């Protein structure tokens, strides 16, 4: 039985994910580096803003930070409750999950890598997809807490498997975004109306999340709203490329896409949304996707 839960890292995702926990659990601790956000969360959702040392006394401890390096640095400093389960919702590095799972097991703490997909809207509506790697028994014990914000929740394998699935998923999204941008630039160069073209593609076999959602909702309307930062996508595609290298596979599309995302990230203005990858293409082609 889970008596208490905690959420560490109230960013674009974490703030919204943690908002659902008080509907299911009486004791919900929250902590954020900028502590004002934790205090605000407590006022808004009835959670308890506490010191980090208290947050890690919960039965289930969620984290959602930018990188695995951030999670490792935090865990190193902590005295976590014996018997707790640490559920890391960061989009992280598989080898880091394996390392943390081994390290924490010695202290009788389970570590699950549990990255999420569905963007901030999915966090808000508790409809996230959660891909979980780690011990099966720990997965089953943590499941009622994950269900507070997850809709499709899958145990995808041993430690690191969740992070691997997430990295490949985001790589596929990046591949589709680059390909769709190249396709639409070509159509515009040939004088085609892009709104009409997207309607056709989205009822045809060339459709993807890029054509159905990213281009219409972020690019064509020229809003590029910041909800998933471009450096976070570059981090994810980097993890995917490392997985390819470790498996000694040849994956030219993945390699090329990683290079494109890297250049987009290096040349973007600070605080750019991931959809700003399109702006790199627009600079090269002098064709605007609108
Ligand atoms: P944000 O940048 O919005 O939030 C990051 C959070 O981590 C903030 O609470 C920040 O605290 C905290 N933080 C950053 N560095 C540290 C540190 N060194 N020590 C302690 N706390 C730290 O990121 P997101 O919420 O967008 O993303 C979080 C994770 O979720 C990433 O791994 C991302 O790839 C993934 N993700 C994001 C999605 C999205 O649509 N945004 C969708 C799916 C996954 P502070 O407020 O003090 O800066």
From TrEMBL:
PROSITE patterns: 3_HYDROXYISOBUT_DH. InterPro entries: 3-OH-isobutyrate_DH-rel_CS, 6-PGluconate_DH-like_C_sf, 6PGD_dom2, 6PGDH_NADP-bd, HIBADH-like_NADP-bd, HIBADH-related, NAD(P)-bd_dom_sf. One of its GO terms (molecular function) is oxidoreductase activity. Residues 5-157 form the 6-phosphogluconate dehydrogenase NADP-binding domain. One of its GO terms (biological process) is organic acid catabolic process. Keywords: NAD, Oxidoreductase. The active site is at 166. Residues 160-281 form the 3-hydroxyisobutyrate dehydrogenase-like NAD-binding domain. Belongs to the HIBADH-related family. This is 3-hydroxyisobutyrate dehydrogenase.
């Amino acid at each position: 039985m889970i008596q208490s839960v905690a959420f560490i890292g109230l960013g674009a995702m974490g703030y919204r994910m943690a908002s659902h926990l008080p509907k299911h659990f009486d004791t919900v601790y929250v902590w954020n580096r900028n502590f004002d956000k934790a205090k605000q969360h407590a006022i808004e959702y009835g959670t308890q803003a506490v010191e980090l040392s208290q947050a890690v006394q919960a039965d289930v401890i969620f984290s959602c930070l930018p990188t695995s390096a951030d999670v490792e640095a935090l865990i190193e400093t902590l005295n976590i409750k014996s018997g707790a389960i640490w559920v890391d919702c960061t989009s992280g590095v598989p080898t880091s999950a394996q390392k943390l799972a081994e390290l924490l097991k010695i202290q009788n703490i389970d570590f699950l890598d549990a990255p999420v997909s569905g963007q901030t809207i999915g966090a808000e509506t508790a409809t996230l997809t959660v891909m979980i790697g780690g011990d099966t028994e720990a997965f089953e014990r943590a499941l009622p807490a994950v269900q507070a914000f997850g809709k499709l929740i899958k145990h995808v394998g041993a430690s690191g498997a969740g992070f691997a699935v997430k990295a490949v998923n985001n790589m596929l999204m990046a591949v589709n975004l680059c390909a769709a941008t190249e396709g639409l630039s070509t159509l515009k160069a040939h004088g085609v109306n892009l709104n009409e073209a997207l309607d056709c593609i989205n009822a045809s076999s060339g459709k993807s999340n890029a054509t159905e959602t990213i281009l219409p909702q972020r690019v064509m309307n020229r809003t590029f709203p910041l909800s998933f930062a471009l450096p976070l996508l570059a981090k994810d595609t980097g993890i995917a490329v490392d997985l390819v290298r470790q498996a000694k596979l040849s994956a030219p599309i993945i390699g090329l896409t990683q290079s494109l995302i890297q250049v987009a990230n290096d040349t973007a203005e600070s605080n750019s949304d991931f959809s700003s990858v399109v702006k790199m293409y627009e600079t090269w082609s002098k064709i605007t996707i609108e």
